[in-house]
Amino acid sequence: MRWWIVPALFSLFRPTRRRFDDLNAQEVLSLAILAEEEDGRIYAAYAANLSQEYPASAAMFDTMAAEENEHRSALLDLYVRKFGPTIIPIRREHVEGFYARKPLWLVRSLPLERARADAAEMERQAEAFYRLAASRSTDAETRKLLGDLAAAEAKHERKALSLEGELTTGGEGKAEQDQAKRQFVLTWVQPGLAGLMDGSVSTLAPIFATAFATQNPWTTFLIGLSASVGAGISMGFTEAAHDDGKLSGRGSPWKRGLASGVMTAIGGLGHALPYLIPHFWTATAIALCVVFVELWVIVWIQNRYMETPIGRAMFQIILGGLLVLATGILIGGA
Fold first, then answer.
1. Residue 214 C-beta-side C-alpha neighbours within 13 Å
2. Domains of the chain, earliest start first
3. pLDDT tens across 244-285, in order?
4. How far is Cα 58 from Cα 60, in angstroms, rounded to an integer?
5. DSSP per-residue string spanning 261-278
6. Does residue 129 or residue 13 have the better pLDDT?
7. H or E segment at 96?
8. Which residues are CB-neighbours of 108 under 8 A, at least 6 positions away?
C-alpha cells in the first residue's frame, strides 16, 4: 500500500464539523458575533415582507433587528478587547448539533403566525446557546455579557409571541403553552414521525416481496420482524447520536432516539404481524389494509403537527408508499 493512502483513508472519516464543547472562548465569541449578524438580517427581511399588511409586526421585527445589531456590537467590542480585530470565520454549519435557520424569510406569502413562531424559535435557540456558552466561560466579563444576552433573547421570544410586543397575563400563559407544544413536537413528534415513515414505507418492499415470492406467512413474518426491529435500532441510535439537543433545543437525545426507534419498529411490524395468520391470502389482505391505515396516520400527523397541507401530505406519503408497495409485489411475483 502506498504511504499516502493511509492518511487519505483517515481523512474520509474525519469529522467535518467541530463539537461545541471543543470550541475555545475566541471561537465561541466569533460564532456569537456572526450568528447575531445573521439573525439581524433575518428580522430585517421579515419586517420588509410584513410592512404592507402588518405594520405593527413589521415594526416589532425592525426593533428586534436593531437590538440584534446592538448585541453584535457588544460582542464585537468584547472580542476586540480580548482577541484583536480578526474574527474567526466560524458559522453555525461548522458546529455539530448547532441550530440551523430555515430560510422562511424568503417566502413572501409566509403567514404572520408562522413568522412570529419562527422568530420565537430563533430567540429560544439563541437563549439556549448563550446560557450554555456562559456556563462554560471562566472570564467574568465574558460570562456577564453572555448571561445578559441570554436574558435579552428570552425577552425577544416573548415579544415575538405577542403581536404588539406587550403581553398580558393570559398571553404569558398562552406563550408557555405554545413553548410546551413546540418542545413536544421537537422532542417526540418530529423524530417519531420520521421513524414511522421510515418503518412503514421502507419495509413495504422487502416484506411484500418475500410474501409473494414464497407465499409462506411464517417466513414473511420473520423477514418483517427482523427488518422492523433492525430498522428501529438503527434509527433510534442514529437520532440519539447525531444531535445532543443542547444547541438545537430539540430535547434529550435519548427521548428522541426512543421515539424514532419505537415508531420505526411499529411502522414495520404493523404489516408484518398479519403474517402470523397461517393462511397466506387472508394475512396479505389484512396486511394491505394495515398499510392503508398506516399511510393515512402519517398523513394526519403531518397535517396536524407539522402544518403540512393535506393534499401535499397525501401526494407525498400515499403515492410514495403505494409505489414502494407495488415494487415489492412486482419483484416478489416475478
1. 16
2. 18-167 (1.20.1260.10), 183-333 (no CATH)
3. 777 777 778 888 899 999 999 999 999 999 999 999 999 999
4. 5
5. HHHHHHHHHTTTGGGGSS
6. 129
7. strand 95-96
8. 49
Separation of alpha carbons 143 and 231, rounded Å: 44
CA distance 299 to 205: 20
For residues 294 and 266, give the distance between their C-alpha atoms in angstroms, rounded to a whole number.
10
Question: With contact defined as beta carbons under 8 Å apart, do 199 and 265 qualify?
Answer: yes
What letters, b where the CB count within 10 A reaches 16 and e where it falls short, cover 80-108? eeebeeebbebebebbbbbbebeebbeee
Sign of the four-CA dihedral 112, 114, 119, 123: positive
Which cell numbers in the block locate residue 143?
460570562
Q: Is the pLDDT of residue 3 over 70?
A: no
Instruction: Give residue for cell 443542547.
Output: 246
Nearest in space to 162 (alpha carbons), one of 174, 179, 149, 180? 174
* Alpha helix ranges (H) inside the chain: 5-12, 25-50, 55-83, 112-136, 140-160, 169-184, 190-202, 204-214, 217-242, 253-269, 280-305, 310-313, 320-333
For residue 65 the three cell numbers come to 433587528
**pLDDT at 8 > cutoff 50:** no
Q: How far apart (Å, rounded) are the C-alpha atoms in residues 151 and 149?
A: 5
Instruction: Map grid coordinates 465569541 to a residue.
Output: 29
Residue 94 pLDDT? 83
Contact 119, 102 (CB under 8 A): no
Q: Is 18 helix (H, G, I), strand (E, B) or coil?
A: strand
- The backbone torsions φ and ψ at residue 250, rounded to the nearest 5 degrees and listed phi first, read -85, 0
pTM of the model: 0.55
